[in-house]
Amino acid sequence: MSRNFFAVISLLLQLFQILNVHCLSYIFRRANVLEKAQYWENNISPCENDQIHFDKGEITVALIADGLHSQKIDLPNNGILFFGKRTELGKPGNWQCKRRRNAEEVYFKQSPSLGFYNGSNWLVSKDGILWRPALHVLQVPSSQDTAIIPSDSGARILLEDFVTIGALILAGQKINFNTKDIMEMKYDEMSTLSSFLLSIQHLGWLM
């Protein structure tokens, strides 16, 4: 059989995969969580008596999900710190090391804005089961799908074009939009101290 025949069969299988998938759920990955070593310079998390620094030249978005104790916190000039349901400032978190003999200065290293159209930033759920589609068109939410932004994250989402999705859920609540020109949206659920920041550049949401 010719190569063209196999190419046609492959294309038909991919088209069948698209037509056979409906209403997927997409969960945006967590980012900028203080408890994760990957968000600290050289993967060095703060111990109980260390001094914590944020980059004053950057707009900082970060989540403190657990306890946090330090000798000093050098807050950023611009940004938002979110607090999780279990946050206790002044109490060492389970993720922190004990006091060092000599306190150190540690630096928070946040991730850059994460692209909406980057499939690696989404976890895809098909009928309640995590699924990794091979086609890029199925790796990001579309007009038939539900996009879920969890509250236990400090992610900033970069949208470089118009987006059409079936539904948007922030911190467990469905959000409805009536505007096509949102430059920045902030969601703050003060009752549980769980929050989320979504930065949008030059686009609108179409629901």
Automatic annotation (TrEMBL):
InterPro entries xrefs: AMN
Alphabetical GO biological process terms: protein transport; receptor-mediated endocytosis
GO CC terms in record: apical plasma membrane; endocytic vesicle
Signal peptide: 1-23
Places the protein is found: Cell membrane
Name of protein: Protein amnionless
Keywords for this protein: Cell membrane, Membrane, Protein transport, Signal, Transmembrane, Transmembrane helix, Transport
Domain of life of the native organism: Eukaryota
Database matches in Pfam families: Amnionless
Chief location: membrane
Membrane topology, from the record: Single-pass type I membrane protein
